[in-house]
Specification:
- The structure is a single chain.
- By secondary structure, the protein is α+β, with helices and mostly antiparallel strands.
- It has one domain: Nucleoside Triphosphate Pyrophosphohydrolase.
- Strand 3 and strand 4 form a beta hairpin.
- It is globular and about 65 Å long.
Length: about 220
């Protein structure tokens, strides 16, 4: 069951548009000194850290079994500006024509008032409805392994992983969050084994998605 083609959403920079909102990310330059176990201290050095108010994110694997008992999982297309605008000249290998358009599991940022175990479930349920169109009881969501740091060299963001069984017949239109980057996404369900094969072949490039898919497969082992 091949995935449908990714929607070819192209991003271009508009030099004439004015910035209309505060910066989403902040870069803090700090001076650090390392203290080693043997008592030695390093010389001071500078380090740049990316910060944002909503620091962490949830990742949700929504899945179901077909009539043959084969587990399927839902993926959603997404366009990521940092990838789409990545310099092709700087890349050591040729990039695909659809650079920046990725297949991902639904995910989203944890709001400030959701910084609790219960809040994470509410956040995951909201993102599932916004991005896939499933309305689920937050209590139906189960952890999918421990949280992890996706890019610890520059940001302290944690990813919190959840999974939930869903009924495909109950999927409605995604409510989305109103942002441009959530418009006109393609949603697809495919067997979990096939999704993992796409990850191994390099056609599914989002790391958090591959990690969650592998953890989901472990539930059957």
């Amino acid at each position: 069951m091949p995935l449908p083609p990714l929607p070819r959403i192209l991003l271009t920079q508009d030099p004439h548009a004015e910035l209309s909102s505060p910066a989403f990310l902040r870069v803090q330059r700090v001076m650090l000194r390392a203290s080693f176990p043997d008592g030695e201290q390093s010389e001071p050095f500078s380090y740049d850290i990316v910060e944002r108010e909503r620091l962490d994110a949830v990742v949700i694997a929504a899945h179901f079994r077909d009539a043959k008992g084969i587990r399927h999982v839902y993926l959603r297309s997404s366009v990521r500006p940092p990838v789409a605008l990545r310099s092709r000249v700087a890349s050591p290998l040729p990039e695909r024509d659809d650079l920046g358009n990725l297949w991902e599991l639904p995910a989203g940022l944890v709001e400030v008032d959701e910084r609790s175990p219960e809040g994470l479930l509410l956040c995951a349920a909201r993102e599932l409805q916004e991005e896939l169109g499933f309305e689920v009881d937050p209590r139906a969501l189960a952890p999918l392994g421990p949280s992890s740091f996706p890019a610890p060299g520059m940001v302290g963001e944690r990813h919190f992983f959840f999974h939930v069984p869903v009924d495909p017949s109950r999927r409605a239109a995604p409510t989305e969050d109103g942002s441009v980057l959530e418009r006109k996404a393609t949603i697809a369900a495919l067997p979990l084994d096939e999704a993992l094969a796409l990850a191994r072949s390099g056609l599914l490039e989002d790391e958090k998605t591959e990690l969650a898919l592998r953890r989901l497969a472990e539930l059957d082992s």
